[in-house]
Amino acid sequence: MVLFGNGRVALVDDPSTAGRLGWAARKRSAPEPEIRLAPVSGDPALEPWIAQGRLPAGGGPGALWQGGGSGWSYLAGVPGLDRYLEAMAEPRKRRDFVVGISGLGRVGGLAASALAAADTARTRIGTLLIHDTDGDNLERMRQELACVASWRKNVLPRVEAATLPEMLRRCDAFVFAAARAVPPLGAPGDVRLPQFGPNREALRSTLDAAVEAAYPGLFFVISDPVELLAQAAFHDSNAPRGEFLGGGLAPERVAGLALGIMWARALAEAEAQGAGARVARRGVPYGPHSTDVLVFDDPAGPDPELSRAMTQAARTGNYRIRDLGYIPFIGPALSSIALTLPALLQGREVLASTFVDGIYFGAPSRLRWGMAPTRRPVAADVRRQVEELHGLVRERMAQYGVSFASAHAGI
Ligand SMILES: NC(=O)c1ccc[n+]([C@@H]2O[C@H](COP(=O)([O-])OP(=O)(O)OC[C@H]3O[C@@H](n4cnc5c(N)ncnc54)[C@H](O)[C@@H]3O)[C@@H](O)[C@H]2O)c1
């Protein structure tokens, strides 16, 4: 066996990728690599490019309850892979994280405010870059957040306004919270799906800047419809003209952050029923940030009635706020972003929509190199419901033209 590369990771028996990267055979004197990456073949339109415990495509949401081992592998030959391998081989960062938030409206603005007021020693976020296409709003937020300080012991992140290209050159994690047309109060029907067209358009210039900068960082989607837009980020950066080229964002470096608020709404219902403490330990939400989300008080042995009430609370929570005459954003900004992102960056389990058998789907997840679901035992009936929901989300992705249906491989 020949290892290539003298960094944190080494490639196993792949002189061709190593040659392209300029990685020589690993020196005998070099320490054991932290990660040995083995080349495998697969479909880069449907599978993570770099993964630990890879599961074969076609298994639906099986990754939520079944493991694929601990070995690391990558899909050799994907055009966009090299920048990720290079970033992965760098020494572990000792500096604090640089986080960028684009879109400083109700949700992005409050999330930026909460992170700007959070101790860097706790969050490890040392710099917050902010951006908005509305120049006055950006300057207002820059000035406001520059004036967040605590007496004497100032350990809060440094806040800087930045252009998109600058953000994508500097960020470890980029958060897309921009929106063009949030339906007003009183708008009939679904308030998320109608945003798809305008928000996909708004996302386009960001994706162009990410591809241009060969951005190797994490890319988080907050804007609605969250899973469809996360899928669009993967799809449109890799298939700008419809045909899969593979030069864009790696699917495992993209995720939707929205299940946090769904869970918080469900947990509030469990608390109201006196089951909060038990549910906080064992409960789990699955699926998209939509009225299709599922919540279980305990996925291994759910109480059907409590699970139904929690699911209903998660599905309707935003409408209850709208019915009072307000567009909801406080719970979302705090639960889906401010309380999720620091934990996520530090490798703790969080709620996120990650690439599960070719589509973005919400579940407890963790950052390894990419974002991947964490697995847990689930009852047969829960499994059936989650499989059905995963199928429905897949159909919706196809209907909106953002999924890759079949083998594009050749890789
Ligand atoms: N993920 C979640 O948990 C969650 C929860 C609630 C709402 N949302 C969604 O978050 C999104 C934002 O909601 P909001 O209430 O903050 O909207 P908003 O209308 O208050 O703010 C949108 C902001 O985006 C800016 N913007 C528009 N196009 C831009 C672009 N291309 N680049 C950068 N900035 C741009 C606007 O200037 C504005 O400041 C919506 O899609 C909403 O449905 C998500």
Overall description:
The chain is of the alpha/beta class and 411 residues long. It folds into two domains: 87 residues, no CATH class; 318 residues, NAD(P)-binding Rossmann-like Domain (Rossmann fold), CATH 3.40.50.720. It is 38% helix and 18% strand. It is built from 14 helices and 16 strands. Strands 8-7-6-9-10-11 form a six-stranded parallel sheet, with helices on both faces. Strand 7, helix 5 and strand 8 form a beta-alpha-beta unit. Helix 6 packs across helix 7, helix 9 packs antiparallel against helix 10 and helix 9 packs across helix 11. The longest helix has 20 residues. It is globular. The two termini are 22 Å apart. The mean pLDDT is 95. Nicotinamide-adenine-dinucleotide binds next to helix 3, helix 7 and helix 12.
In a few lines, what is going on in this structure?
Helix content is 38%, strand content 18%. It is α/β, with parallel strands linked by helices and 411 residues long. Strand 7, helix 5 and strand 8 form a beta-alpha-beta unit.
Task: Count all strands and give the number.
Answer: 16
Largest sheet: 6 strands, parallel
Helix- and strand-based class? alpha/beta
Mean pLDDT: 95
Helix fraction by DSSP (H/I, runs of at least 4)? 25-40%
Number of domains: 2
Q: Assign the CATH architecture of the largest domain.
A: 3-Layer(aba) Sandwich
Give start-end ranges of low-pLDDT stretches.
none
Global Rg: 21 Å
CATH class of the largest domain: Alpha Beta
The run of helices and strands is EEHEEEHEHHEHEHEHEHEHHEEHHHEEEH
Throw out a few tags for this protein:
about 400 residues; alpha/beta; Rossmann fold; 2 domains; six-stranded parallel β-sheet; 14 helices; 16 strands; about 20% strand; globular; binds nicotinamide-adenine-dinucleotide
